[in-house]
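FORM 12-B: Structure-to-Sequence Request
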């Protein structure tokens, strides 16, 4: 928690005002019991009406000052707390964006969402309460005890007894509930994960008629969360009756002791009344501290989870500036590249070597799990190879600054990803300076123009979160248009034509040829028809390169490629392809 307090630094002058107003509020409130005592002793006892009126005006004036000071304290504590959480949330989000895909997988998306929302809210609440109470409560307790000792020294043992009992009760409660706060936060992560997972996979759940299964899975976690929250709330709810018991008991003891002392001196009545109010002030101060003891342990758990993300050093370290000068001619070179996921026993890629040149299309094909998408994801450095080197435009990928590398790459993921906004904002996502004419041209090449022109507002039409209001094929075409609009050195299509019909696929690939004539084009595909015209086809099997060449060459020389072609083509089409390639069907 202390590590996060650096976010209060920009608000230091507001904190100073808050502390000054807190001191003023406490001082004025502690004057009231003394004035009341003087009213009883010097006004009522002496039947001095003028003094009573004069003292009454003082009480109203001090109460007014205390109210104004309390308003200022509440205003600045809320303002500082909100600014604190805003700055922390911004930095946490920035840190998350800087993490590698591996780092994000280590935390899980659901956990990162919870840390950015719920955990920061917990810390903000603690900071706001601390600003209001952490100075006020101890200051009130110290000054009230001092005033009580000066007013009725014979009765100060009552305050010591009450505070001692309160302290023991608070310690017992905190020891019991502290470990449970950590478990509750983990269960919150689990609930977020299940909710996100089920909403994302709702179609699949319904298609397999598994609503009841998922409901039971969610209900188990929800029940465990509820059970634990009830236990914590039950324990914490003991505070109010226990504190009320201590306060009422203190009042009774004060009156009993005060009355016994009044036998010798009737003027002790005013001192007893003042002491009783000071005692209540001390107990209320400790009550405020107990509220902090409730909030702080939970906030401390949340702060630890936030710091865990903030202190994570990304597994992929980028240079602040690109070291060296890349070649003007685009190229991608893999030199004996290996890759394996953390704690995995087998390599996903093994000894992969190839060169993809400008103006050429390099395609990757293979069975599911052969490592095609993993290989493609190494180019924009989403993952780091465990061995070997990757060069982009002749320069080692590890020597690039992140922005410099990413501006050279137009990436179209396997699943079309769109952002809430408009058709226009999605196409111009990577090229905000694009002209209207260039944007329309990108949509035309991606075969998106036809369906966009039919929308009510055309390019200003709304795109819902995740592109949920457009079809899978439309999502893919807009994703491709976004990459084209960027005009990169390297185009990466990770099975990006799978949702397109054969006719649209062919039209799109023909339209792409003039655009990519000076760029490197990397395509991952499942369909032979998508890549058969590629300049270079790389066949992967269990992470290893088992074939490299053109379509016709691979039909003759690569058994894996031949089997893929045979599984996708009819007997007549396969025989025809083999005949063209000079092989035997």
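FORM 12-B RESPONSE
SEQUENCE OUT:
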């Amino acid at each position: 928690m202390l590590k996060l307090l650096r976010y209060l630094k920009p608000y230091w002058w507001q904190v100073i005002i808050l502390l000054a107003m807190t001191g003023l509020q406490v001082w004025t409130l502690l004057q009231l019991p003394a004035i009341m005592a003087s009213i009883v002793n010097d006004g009522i006892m002496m039947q001095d009406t003028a003094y009573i009126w004069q003292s009454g005006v003082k009480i109203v004036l001090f109460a007014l000052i205390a109210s104004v000071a309390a308003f200022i304290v509440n205003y600045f504590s809320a303002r500082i707390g909100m600014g604190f959480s805003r700055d922390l949330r911004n930095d946490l989000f920035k840190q998350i964006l800087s993490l590698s895909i591996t780092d994000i997988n280590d935390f899980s998306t659901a956990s990162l969402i919870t840390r950015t929302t719920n955990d920061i809210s917990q810390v903000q609440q603690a900071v706001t309460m601390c600003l209001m109470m952490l100075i006020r409560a101890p200051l009130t307790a110290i000054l009230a005890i001092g005033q009580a000792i000066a007013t009725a020294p014979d009765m100060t043992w009552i305050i010591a007894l009450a505070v001692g009992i309160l302290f023991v009760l608070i310690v017992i409660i905190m020891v019991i509930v502290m470990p449970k706060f950590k478990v509750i936060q983990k269960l919150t992560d689990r609930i977020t994960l299940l909710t996100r997972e089920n909403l994302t996979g709702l179609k699949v759940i319904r298609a397999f008629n598994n609503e009841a299964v998922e409901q039971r899975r969610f209900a188990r976690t929800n029940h465990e969360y509820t059970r634990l929250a009830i236990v914590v709330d039950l324990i914490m709810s003991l505070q109010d009756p226990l504190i009320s018991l201590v306060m009422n008991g203190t009042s009774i003891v004060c009156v009993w002791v005060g009355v016994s002392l009044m036998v010798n001196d009737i003027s002790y009545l005013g001192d007893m009344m003042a002491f009783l109010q000071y005692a209540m002030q001390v107990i209320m101060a400790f009550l405020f501290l107990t509220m902090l003891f409730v909030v702080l342990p939970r906030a401390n758990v949340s702060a630890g989870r936030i710091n865990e993300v903030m202190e994570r050093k990304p597994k992929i370290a980028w240079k602040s500036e690109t070291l060296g000068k890349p070649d003007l001619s685009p190229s991608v070179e893999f030199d004996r590249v290996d890759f394996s996921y953390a704690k995995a026993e087998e390599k996903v890629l093994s000894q992969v070597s190839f060169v993809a040149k400008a103006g050429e299309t390099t395609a990757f094909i293979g069975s599911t799990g052969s490592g095609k998408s993993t290989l493609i994801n190494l180019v924009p450095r989403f993952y780091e190879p465990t061995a070997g080197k990757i060069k982009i435009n002749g320069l080692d990928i590890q020597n690039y600054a992140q922005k410099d590398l990413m501006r050279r790459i137009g990436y179209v993921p396997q699943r079309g990803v769109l952002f809430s906004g408009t058709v226009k904002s999605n196409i111009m996502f990577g090229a905000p300076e694009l002209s209207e004419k260039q944007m329309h041209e990108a949509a035309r090449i991606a075969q998106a123009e036809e369906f966009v022109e039919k929308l009510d507002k055309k390019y200003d039409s709304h795109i819902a979160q995740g592109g949920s209001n457009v079809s899978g094929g439309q999502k893919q075409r807009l994703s491709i248009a976004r990459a084209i609009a960027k005009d990169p050195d390297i185009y990466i299509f990770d099975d990006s034509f799978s949702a397109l019909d054969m006719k649209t696929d062919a039209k799109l690939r023909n339209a792409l040829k003039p655009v990519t004539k000076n760029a490197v084009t990397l395509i991952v595909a499942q369909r032979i028809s998508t890549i058969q015209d590629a300049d270079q086809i790389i066949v992967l099997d269990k992470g290893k390169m088992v074939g490299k060449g053109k379509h016709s060459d691979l039909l003759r020389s690569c058994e894996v490629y031949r089997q893929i072609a045979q599984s996708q083509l009819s007997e007549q089409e396969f025989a025809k392809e083999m005949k063209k390639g000079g092989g035997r069907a």
